[in-house]
Amino acid sequence: MEKIRFSTEIWTGDAALQGLLDFHDQRVFIVTDPFMVKSGNIAAITDQLSEKNEIKIFSDIVPDPPITKITLGVEALNKFNATVVVAVGGGSAIDAAKAMKFFTKRITKQKEEILFIAIPTTSGTGSEVTNFSVITNSEAGIKYPLVTDEILPQIAILDADLVKTAPQNITVDTGMDVLTHCLEAYVSIDANDFSDALAEKAFQLVFENIEKVSKDGSNIEARQRMHNASCIAGMAFNLANLGLNHGIAHAAGAKFHIPHGRLNTILLPHIIAYNANIARNSSNVAALKYCNLARLIGLSASNPRIGIRSLTNTIIQLRRKLKMPDSFQAYGIKKELFDQSKNDIAEAALKDGTTAANPRKPTKEDIIAILEESFTKN
């Protein structure tokens, strides 16, 4: 038996942020990054909160939030005695807020539930609707996924006005992360009819809109569709988990500090080839499902071999159009560092919770081979 549940209420479309006007007499703890405060962009949120609320902003957030920052946030959240937590930002801010809320409850043993609202300012992680949080042990160079329904936001607010000024590199990095979420959720061993429907729709939305927002960030219609795609893909992988692409990306990201979506995109063609395993079996489930995705966006796919080749080539072409690196080497990772790190990355990837859902069970040697293929140009 499978239990399908979507417990996050989604506010989307024009003036979605105005829903915050309904909150009164609350102690609102806002978790965000320093740029949102320095740029004044956080006013888009605080201006919607009545003066009858007490507000505290915690902005000591960095990419790949380390345990040390989570600890500081827990102390501040507990001291403030918040009734509402509002996470505003990309995946790092939302993931950090999730971890803060989780550990605060554990430490204080509080009985009253803190309302958790997630407001993404990038269209990529889908973190606003997932029970995932990734935190980093910077000293050990390891990322730890925290997975529990206790960290699911009760409300997610999708307002495209918050992403229309995102730089092109952030836009494409996060957008390609969405594409990776779709592909991995779709071929996951835990996929089902519900996650498949979500992954298919998000996949189509990405291909229809990512080039548009890359070329013109002010295209608010395309921005909203990418924002929706990110959320829909998040719903898909919250049901089905992800796979080896993210398992390697989590491990390699902790070592090389490459933006997550960019790293996923470097790996993606190699992961598709590995999972499809065309040389040995062109009719495994993953190969057939990749072929179906190719058909959904109008690619030639008369059989799995052709469909997978079409899909892979199209992703490589898209990566090139978006001016993204096609290898670790192209990103600037030195061979010496790569060789020193690949064994540790492979071992960490094997232990990552997302790898468990991959359609093909990898060995350490398989992962090292994928890494080596990804070091130089496709």
TrEMBL record:
Q: Which organism is it from?
A: Loigolactobacillus jiayinensis
Cite the Pfam families for this sequence: ADH_Fe_C (PF25137), Fe-ADH (PF00465)
Q: Output the InterPro entries linked to this UniProt entry.
A: ADH_Fe/GldA, ADH_Fe_C, ADH_Fe_CS, Alcohol_dehydrogenase_Fe
| The EC number(s) this enzyme carries | 1.1.-.-
In its UniProt record, a GO molecular function of this protein is: oxidoreductase activity
Task: Enumerate the SUPFAM superfamilies for this protein.
Answer: Dehydroquinate synthase-like
Which intervals hold domain Fe-containing alcohol dehydrogenase-like C-terminal? 171-374
Put simply, this protein is called 1-propanol dehydrogenase PduQ
- Which lineage? Bacteria, Bacillati, Bacillota, Bacilli, Lactobacillales
